What we know:
The chain is mainly α.
Amino acid sequence: MSGVAMYSSVQSGGTDQRVMQHAPLVKRIAYHLLNRLPDSIQVDDLIQAGMLGLLEAIKNFDATQGASFETYAGIRIRGSMLDEVRRSDWTPRSVHKKSRMVSEAIKAIENKTGSAARDTDVAAYLGISLDEYNLILQDSNSCRIFSMEELAESGDHYLEESQAHDVEPDDSLGRESFLQALAKAIMCLPERERLVISLYYDDELNLREIGEVLNISESRVSQISSQAVLRLRSRLAGWMDD
């Protein structure tokens, strides 16, 4: 049974109508996420998890908090899907460890030089070849701690919490400050990394489509996107730790 059928069959009245109204949003987010996830992740699993997130959004949404239902629901749906991915994360610990090493290397290089760390700089800092470095980036693409979705979620959680609980003014200011810091960090990315993120988020292209636009291989797009997110995480380390 599909996620839509499963959850709509147990709902009634206004909730049922809202579930069916926003089911296309669940599917759109699921297929968008699927393009960056390992082959072991099935779209039906994402959709079912997303439907649970939609039901939670319907249950907890508070219109007086200022955000639209679509915005709030999108956050809860994506978060529920990412929870499903976390539960099925079989990425080897060695991949996580190497990816953290790259992020720390980028931070160290950029703190020292004051400019964007190039792939050759990071490889030299780690004492590995450029091919080995690119392989780490490729492996990191399926490593959940470096997904662009979770990076965005670090800011979205402020909105989610504000809907579920009473929020002090400082909380909304904190979220706004994070989003400003994230936007600034994206604008300061090297041109190609910034373009890849723009095509992925603003134009909602998948990695294959981005490769066609830039005339590069899908694996190269994967490496560039991984390096972009590693760079953003290194520059926003304070926010990530908080």
